[in-house]
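Quarterly update from the structural biology core.
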Amino acid sequence: MYDRMHSLSESELGLIHKNSMDILEKTGVAFMYEEALEIFKSHGFRVEGNTVYFTEEDVRKSLSTTPSQFVVEGRNPEKSVSIGEDDWVFLPTYGAPYICEKDGSQRPGTLADYESICKLVQTSPYIDMNAFKLVEPSDVPTETAYLDMLQANMLMCDKPFMGSTDTIEACRDTMEMLSILFGGRETLKEKVVCLGLVNVLSPLKYGEEMAGAIVEYARNGQAMAIINMIMGGTSGPVSLPGLVTLMNAEILAGVVLSQLVNPGTPVVYGTTSCPTNMQSGAATIGAPETYIINAWTTQIARYYNLPCRTGGSITDSLIPDAQSMAEGALCLSTTVRNGANFILHSCGMIGTYIGCNMEKWIIDEEMCGMVRSMMRTVPVTEESIGVEAIQRVGIGGNYLMDPDTLKHCRTAFYKTSFYNKSDASAWMKSGGLSLADAASVELEKRFAAYERPAIDPEVEKALIAYIEGRKASFKAA
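Predicted structure, tokenized:
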């Protein structure tokens, strides 16, 4: 297939790999978690202080046990998803501290906002899996907020979801709650029911909580996405080849730890890396270099036969405007076309990860549907060509009333749910709404249509009792 984007050649991929191995062997990676260091030592790794050194053989051995594809089971088995190889999933935004209104104003997120986004995920025809920390709820205690978010993920939606990696304790609580939801600890050893996000502290460092998250998720057989956010020119090299080489070394170090803990643990290889705005020092995710990094990341992940995570509809814009649509569409389509498997921030993210905008959530969701339709395989066969119809209509004819058109007119082409496809007159008669205003109307419809999925009352009771007990323990402490 011909594509004008720069595809890394085998020799270029080999050069990135060689230099990554050189970094791992000579510079090493710091792990600020004693149990992780003990795991490395017990497997014969050279450890000096908090720094672990890796050989190429160490990396190759770990890659040999990391699956290229895996399934994340949903509470509703019909909604389980496959991640890796040719299978890919859309997820909403993650980690936003604010709700951003369409007029540009911002306010801290609340638990009600979090639950609203869960409703959108549950009713979405295009979002395959729920994320975590959809927005940070500021109206509940910080130390126990992850319990409230996990409860919403588990009770308000029956799709697969992401768990908490905020602290090691949060990871352990996630596993306890998963065992309640899915029928015991043994179930966790048998199937993947959750995925956690692990963030590297670039350059070349895993903090205590993230190293601990790798250990806890791997120990329980649950999947993880190991990612970094290197800012070119500040936390990483200004050159893109140098940036992705550093990125690669950091991620592979985490992959090795996961496989030492539990060979076969599913790991998604990913990044949110981007250039630095050299005028302000801030991250610039709506930049052409970000799309190149995303494209290269998917190619490097395939080089190691790993599933890949890169950005979705991400933007630096602070409102759902033309800039947010342009940057979001460029990033989302580039990510999908280049073969990413786990696409976080597919909808809703605004202002360089600062917030979630509900109108943009709805607008992006429609874009996800369009991109998925664009990626579908269109079979070219004698039947699909239909030369008989072409001959039947003949020169200067019209296909509108042709039997083939009448048969397929309702299903042949993608139909948007609320993007405007009317002429000016019809658009004005329907209110002449901008896309953002139309999205506001669509939001109300979606919230009205939401129905909480059924769950075994005893399971729900057990989950709530566990959460209440954990919250009480925090108060007692």
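The first strand starts at residue 29 and ends at 31.
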